[in-house]
Write a sequence for this structure.
């Protein structure tokens, strides 16, 4: 069982038989009032969304989901093929099911494939991935103090905002949950 | 995961402008109080018995607690004959973390003997006009994608009027259905203070545990909140000075807290004793961090403090 203070973006709950993921989460608390947990929930099977506000006394059932480590093999049409390295079984996810993970999906990356009643329904990448910067404006030295950012392209084709001192060819670590730059990786 | 020194430097450096605004604002606030015959005071951060409130939980510190507000000690000073006092301090509240909440935040609190909540509303307006002017904000405030006109006088609206205007359900009905907080935050708050700052006033008495009820309508309390840009900035009221009534409200809150398994505080007896000598007064608490968010046009509260709890 979860309580309201466990709620956060990304948490998965079972509501009326279906698995749901929290896509937006906001803690609100009016002056002298009670804590409210405002959420947007997405049905993980059909993508339907709705908003619901919970109180701190509310309880939640976790969604009974299984994750299995699989390797990304290739994309074919709008299907993404993954292989279970234990039994070499292959499963397919649709573009919708892959979602924003596509921005960080590099060949052979190991990802968790989400199974609901043994059916693949989604993917979760490692929280942090390391990607090579393939296109970046050159760095004007001495610019580290300003806190300014610039957009760069990474090897998957995605665009990421990074500090200005990051240069082309460098490897950077990205938080796949937020899509945000974290740090440069040496070597 | 550790981040490099260069990246830490980057995250702190990008806050420089906000931290300068913050320092400038605090200076301007102090200047107003200094010019208006207020005494700046400090009260302890670690306290044995915080005010028992139904929806605010203190963090333990040894056998005592970290203050959730300096209210009780400031009122003891009021009762002892300090008529105009202010304080800027850290307050701590358990399990409060969101875009507008930090578990450790900065509060400005002030009290004026002889004032009621309407006079305090005017003073709050004058303070903020002076302080915003002191950091170069005189006509409009750019907030998200709008402009908020900050020239005075600001808007004043009762809670009842605001529910009628913005919510699909009236205030009375919201209270009856126990959905006041939900309806306020969903329908009303996002509309408040969007064109110009708004004082929302005359709260249901149930929602004002330390405030005085209105003489002509005891179902309402002489409490107000200031909203700017949909964000709650300050909460003030005419102070309840009836000792028996205050004790009864504290006991009620203690019962509600016990049901939730929240910390047991002792009854703040010294405060209750002092309350008997407190002159009619009004007091107000204002969130400094949120005021800086408005100045900096910052969407998240951690953008206006050097270190949020996740970066320690």
């Amino acid at each position: 069982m979860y309580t309201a203070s466990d709620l956060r973006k990304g948490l998965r709950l079972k509501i009326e038989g279906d698995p749901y993921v929290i896509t937006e989460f906001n803690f609100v608390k009016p002056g002298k009032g009670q804590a409210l947990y405002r959420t947007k929930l997405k049905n993980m099977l059909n993508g339907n969304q709705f908003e619901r506000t919970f109180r701190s006394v509310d309880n939640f059932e976790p969604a009974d989901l299984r994750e299995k480590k699989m390797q990304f093999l290739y994309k074919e049409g709008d299907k993404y093929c993954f292989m279970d390295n234990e039994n070499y079984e292959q499963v397919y996810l649709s573009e919708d099911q892959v979602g924003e993970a596509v921005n960080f999906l590099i060949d052979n990356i190991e990802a968790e494939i989400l199974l609901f009643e043994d059916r693949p329904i989604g993917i979760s990448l490692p929280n942090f991935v390391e990607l090579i910067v393939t296109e970046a404006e050159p760095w004007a030295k001495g610019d580290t103090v300003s806190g300014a950012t610039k957009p760069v392209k990474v090897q998957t084709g995605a665009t990421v905002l990074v500090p200005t001192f990051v240069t082309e060819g460098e490897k950077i670590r990205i938080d796949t949950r937020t899509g945000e730059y974290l740090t440069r990786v040496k070597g | 995961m550790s981040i490099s020194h260069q990246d830490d430097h980057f995250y702190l450096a990008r806050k420089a402008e906000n931290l300068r605004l913050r320092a400038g604002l605090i200076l301007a606030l102090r200047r107003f109080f200094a010019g208006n015959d207020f005494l700046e005071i400090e009260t302890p951060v670690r306290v044995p018995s915080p005010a028992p409130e139904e929806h605010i939980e203190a963090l333990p510190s040894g056998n005592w607690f970290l203050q959730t507000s300096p209210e009780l000690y400031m009122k003891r000073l009021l009762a002892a004959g300090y008529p105009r006092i202010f304080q800027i301090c850290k307050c701590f509240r358990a399990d409060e973390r969101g875009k507008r909440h930090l578990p450790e935040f900065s509060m400005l609190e002030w009290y004026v003997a002889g004032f009621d909540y309407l006079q305090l509303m005017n003073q709050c307006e004058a303070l903020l006009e002076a302080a915003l002017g002191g950091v170069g904000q005189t006509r409009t405030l750019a907030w998200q994608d709008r402009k908020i006109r900050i020239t005075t006088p600001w808007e004043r609206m009762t809670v009842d009027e605001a529910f009628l205007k913005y919510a699909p359900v009236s205030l009375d009905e919201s209270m009856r259905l126990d959905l006041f907080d939900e309806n306020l935050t969903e329908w009303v708050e996002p509309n408040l203070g969007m064109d110009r700052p708004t004082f929302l006033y005359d709260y249901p008495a149930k929602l004002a545990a330390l405030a005085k009820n209105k003489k002509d309508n005891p179902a309402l309390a002489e409490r107000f909140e200031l909203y700017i840009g949909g964000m709650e900035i300050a909460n003030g009221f005419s102070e309840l000075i009836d000792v028996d009534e205050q004790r009864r409200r504290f006991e009620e809150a203690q019962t509600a807290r016990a049901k939730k398994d929240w910390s047991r505080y002792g009854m703040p007896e010294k405060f209750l004793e002092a309350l008997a000598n407190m002159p009619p007064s009004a007091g107000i608490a204002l969130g400094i961090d949120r005021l800086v968010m408005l100045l900096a046009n910052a969407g998240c509260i951690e953008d206006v403090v050097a270190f949020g709890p996740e970066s320690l």
About this structure: The longest helix of chain B spans residues 16-35. The domain at 5-311 of chain B is CATH 3.30.930.10 (BirA Bifunctional Protein; domain 2). Chain B has a mean pLDDT of 96. Chain B has one domain: 5-311.
